[in-house]
Design brief:
15 helices, Protein-Tyrosine Phosphatase, Chain A, Udp-n-acetylmuramoylalanyl-d-glutamate--2,6- Diaminopimelate Ligase, Chain: A, domain 1, alpha/beta, 6-stranded mixed beta sheet, UDP-N-acetylmuramoyl-L-alanine:D-glutamate ligase, 9-stranded mixed beta sheet, about 20% strand, about 30% helix
């Protein structure tokens, strides 16, 4: 399939003779450039059809719109279809079907973006690589990644997310994988599920395409043998806890010891110390091995690895260490972030600023309570933001410690300003919709101005 209006229209069953070339495809009007194709998707809060004038002014070439749209075309070529999202999926699937390289897909309740980024960095010396931008991993954004892929790189790495059963299956129907990675199944985006096993089942849909030959799995997933038995893959496991995994990594005070299939491969130093990040790196190492790299090929890259923005990002403000882990939050990720906090020096203290964890459904109260119990063991002071955190506060205070619950972020920041001192360590984490990074931005303003 060529990227011309005519060829794209033909794939969608629309007859248009305009042979103009399309540069990129977008669903976000803010990203539109000259000669781009826009998909006018309808969302909960916005309707892409309302932005046709805007993209026309930016010199977009065409737009895929609903056949029911009766507004102005603003000089655009309009491709009218029954369902814009289905059209987006169809085009992405057609675009990638003749790709001759390998496709790696990453899903899981935690660490998807970090694992994706680490794989790309580790293999980039041997292969040319294209990867999902930012966290483009949904039903709407993954097809855009695929459509904007030139197909010239040797490896395509895709991040795949879901909030209900069947969504991962739709994504791999678009881009069938050679290697599938599952980082784990935990309580996350759980409001549409009845159990963790249901979440695991939805995640393991990533293995359901016959093209997929290798599954790289967190060793904990082997507890779901009833789900895995239908898949006939080469299964490669990794763990920082279970020595009998195919890839195992043990940290001591100075060195990291790497075992492959229960044989000590190598010991080396690693600047990354946080367990949640080390486990993501181990997943990336396991994938890189499947692509033909050795540990020696990767060693030089370990100290150059770059974390995605707002993932356990360390920021010093006035000699106070802020751990900015604000991209998203679920119970496992928050617990790990708490447990990985370094110990302060002298008489300094640790503070956790935790926003509520969204989309947990019936698991919300218990999950927040469990996080509160961990926080009570790890930090000196707990500041919470959001009504769902009430049980977190209860759990913390059950341990005889004082916590503070806020519904107003400005009031939370004012409290934080009053209690922080030089040498303190402050973890800031919460669901992305809460914009917890604004807490750190407000603190920065205090000292910059």
């Amino acid at each position: 399939m060529e990227k011309t209006i005519k060829s794209i229209a033909c794939q969608l069953g629309v007859c248009i003779e305009d042979d103009s070339k399309i540069f990129n495809c977008q669903i976000d009007s803010r990203l539109i450039c000259e000669n781009d194709l826009f998909f006018a998707l309808k969302g909960e809060n916005v309707n892409g059809h309302d932005f046709l004038k805007e993209i026309s002014l930016k010199k977009a070439k065409a737009a895929v719109v609903s056949k029911d749209y009766i507004g102005d075309d603003y000089g655009l070529v309009l491709l009218r279809v029954d369902n814009v999202l289905e059209a987006l999926h169809t085009l992405a699937k057609k675009w990638i079907e003749d790709y001759q390289g390998k496709i790696v897909g990453v899903t899981g309740s935690v660490g998807k973006t970090t694992v994706k980024e680490f794989i790309a960095q580790l293999i980039s010396k041997k292969y040319t690589v294209y990867k999902s931008v930012k966290s483009y991993n949904s039903q709407r954004t993954l097809p855009i990644v695929v459509l904007n892929f030139s197909k010239e790189e040797q490896i395509l790495i895709l991040e795949m997310a879901m909030s209900e059963k069947g969504q991962i299956k739709k994504l791999i129907d678009i881009a069938p994988l050679d290697i599938a990675v599952v980082t784990g199944a935990y309580i996350c985006h759980a409001e549409n599920f009845e159990s963790i096993e249901d979440i695991a089942s939805a995640k393991l849909e990533i293995l359901s395409n016959p093209k997929t030959k290798i599954a790289v799995l967190n060793k904990n997933l082997l507890q779901y043998q009833n789900l895995l038995k239908e898949y006939k893959h080469k299964i490669v496991t990794y763990s920082i806890e279970q020595r009998d995994s195919d890839f195992y990594l043990l940290q001591d005070n100075e060195f990291v010891h790497m075992d492959i299939e229960e044989v000590r491969e190598k010991s080396f130093q690693l600047s990354i110390k946080e367990n949640l990040i080390v486990e993501d790196l181990l997943a990336a190492i396991a994938v890189s091995y499947q692509l033909g790299l050795t540990l020696d090929d990767m060693l030089d890259e370990f100290d150059n690895l770059k974390m995605p923005s707002m993932r356990y990002e360390k920021v010093f403000i006035n000699d106070i260490l802020f751990v900015k882990d604000c991209f998203n939050a679920n119970p496992v990720a928050v617990k790990r972030a708490l447990l990985d906090l370094p110990f302060p020096k002298d008489n300094a203290k640790t503070i956790a600023v935790l926003g509520s964890m969204k989309e947990l459904g019936k698991f919300s109260k218990e999950s927040h309570f469990e996080v509160g119990k961990i926080a009570a063991k790890k930090v000196d002071t707990l500041l919470c933001y959001g009504q769902e955190c009430l049980s977190m506060v209860d759990a913390y205070e059950e341990e005889g410690k004082e916590a503070f619950l806020f519904q107003d972020k400005k009031l939370l920041v004012e409290k934080l300003k009053k209690i922080i001192q030089r040498g303190d360590i402050v973890l800031v984490k919460g669901s992305r919709s809460l914009k917890m990074w604004e807490v750190i931005e407000d603190i920065e303003k205090e000292y910059i101005h």
